[in-house]
Amino acid sequence: MLTTSVRFAYRLIGTLGALHFLFILTLSEHISGLSVALFTVCVIAVLPPVQRRIRQLPLLGRDWFFGCAFLILIFVANVQLERGNRPEIVHGEYAFAHATLITGELGAAPISDAVILVDVSGEIVEVGTSASLTIPDGYETIDLSGKFLLPGLINAHGHLVMSGSEPGRTVEMTRFGPPEWVVGMFLTLAPTYAGEKVLVRLMERNAMRALRAGITTVRGLGDPEFYDVVLRKQIESGRSLGPRLLVAGPLLCTTGGHARQIGITLDGPDEARRAVRTSLSHEVDVIKIASTGGVADSKRLGEAGELQMTPEEISAITDEAHRKGVLVTAHAESAEGVLEALRAGIDNIEHGAELDDEALGLFLNNPRSLRGFTSLHPTLSVISSNRTLNEEGRKNRALYIRYMNGQQVSRDVISGYKSAVAAGVKIGVGTDGGLVDHASVWRELEFMIQHGNITNERAIHIGTLATAESIGIEATTGSIEIGKAADFMVVDANPFEELSTLDNPHMVVAAGSIVDRH
Ligand SMILES: [Zn+2]
Prior knowledge:
The radius of gyration is 26 Å and the shape is globular. Helix 9 (about 310-325) links the parallel strand 11 (about 285-290) and strand 12.
């Protein structure tokens, strides 16, 4: 017989194991049948009538043996659930054949009846046509006759922890994930075990939503606790399928400043340097700062464009990051804010504002930036949100202020985008995914075409290769080229003629792995 305290310990651990199982189960997309079977056995085994029978059995009837068996079963059920929970990653030697190829290069004519060879490492090893290229033995041919193949889209600005709504909808924020208050609760619990479990899963789901829509790279610009780094490592190590991630961890902001809820606050150049070093020690890929106020958390009219970070703070940040070869991007929503960030050597501007000649000049030639130029991510998707004020918004002062600030920023960002296009500034695609749906990146291209009067071809180049260049990953991805990662999407119609075909890809390939192949 076991002592009371040992029995109590068994029961406590068993109960915690069962609760953990149920907790993970509610977060799971793909559920392992074996894990559910094991869990069911555990539940049946503790039912009182079954317990009475078990107690009469020779070995299993002994308390210590039953306790151990129970704990092992519940442990294995948990492990199985965790493992069986992720989309499968399959690498092979593939020949993607007979599609019309859009390479992502601007001005390159589409190649009919193309063949792209991808090896087991997920790299493009050959690009040609059916006539010019023989498919080697051992390669599996995937017939894409009548389809169009183009590089996966890149979203240079997302927040993985939030799920977003359709661009252009209203002040209502979350539509594709759990309600905002649930996410808010777990953000409060972020540093705890439960917080990490829930938030990393949520980020994984949002990242998968993007990937299934053909977005093969997402740059996360502000998420709690460096959990975006945790997810990136899971994907890099093959434990999780997802888009290529570049992440900033929590963004850097000032005390009381924009996005402090998901930020590291700093005041003064020394703290600015320390914040960059902290972020880099967590292995982030990029530094994101909030140099001005923002719409989403504004409480006063005009707060969105208000200067928050000082030029000295921004300079300390760019200097420290550039020493390590890391790009810095700034949330900036006013002309003065953009200018201060540009003068301090910022590498990208998120959102933007009206741009004067000095600003445009610095975008094109910015000696203090890491690469000599600064690029613009106008995030037209998010600034086109909040376009209509619904009934609730009319009555609610806080929503009204956000709406009015949104209107102001929206006018200025569109104006800045137009002058940037005219001046030849490098432009990239960022939607502020999380505030808008992670899957609707193609809509950003639509907004760019609409406001910038550019062709579909140019927009697709911006959404792929130009964004890769903007965020510094053009050597790895962004176009269909030998030596680059096999990151692409296959669509039914010619996107040069019909952009909306990007909304529903026929196939998505991420680093050589075919997503959701059935
Ligand atoms: Zn953002």
